[in-house]
Design brief:
Blueprint lengths: L4 H17 L5 H16 L5 H27 L3 H29 L19
Length: about 120
């Protein structure tokens, strides 16, 4: 089974972040995904808007995860951790939306569907 374009693009944007913040330990993996994304771009399969949107979302998730780590190390403010976790949940909902759009437009892979899940139907206050 071939890896769907949605997963390739998502993983590529995550690896770009890891390359920036972690460094050379993921270089081989990054190079493989970079080469594949470059090939898919030349074939007109991958759209820049997908890369841009998933890069923004994944960067925001990365930053929120770092903030949670800082909070844990500093003071264990569980309310603040909860707020950040809810922001991450919303960003993951947006991320899945983009990935599902890629599946739909390329005809590859399967959309991720959540039923009766709190990220789909936020609770009323």
């Amino acid at each position: 089974m071939r890896t769907p374009v949605s997963d390739i693009v998502d993983r590529y944007t995550i690896l770009k972040l890891k390359q920036k913040y972690i460094g050379s330990s993921i270089q081989r993996q990054f190079n493989i995904y970079h080469k594949e994304v470059r090939k898919l771009r030349k074939q007109g399969i991958v759209k820049e808007e997908w890369i841009k949107k998933l890069s923004q979302i994944n960067k925001s998730i990365w930053e929120l995860e770092c903030m949670i780590g800082d909070i844990v190390r500093e003071n264990f403010d569980f309310e603040e951790i909860g707020r950040k976790a809810l922001e991450i949940r919303e960003l993951n909902r947006q991320r899945i939306e983009v990935k599902n759009k890629i599946c739909e437009e390329t005809g590859e892979g399967f959309p991720e569907i959540k039923i009766d899940h709190t990220s789909v139907h936020p609770r009323e206050k």
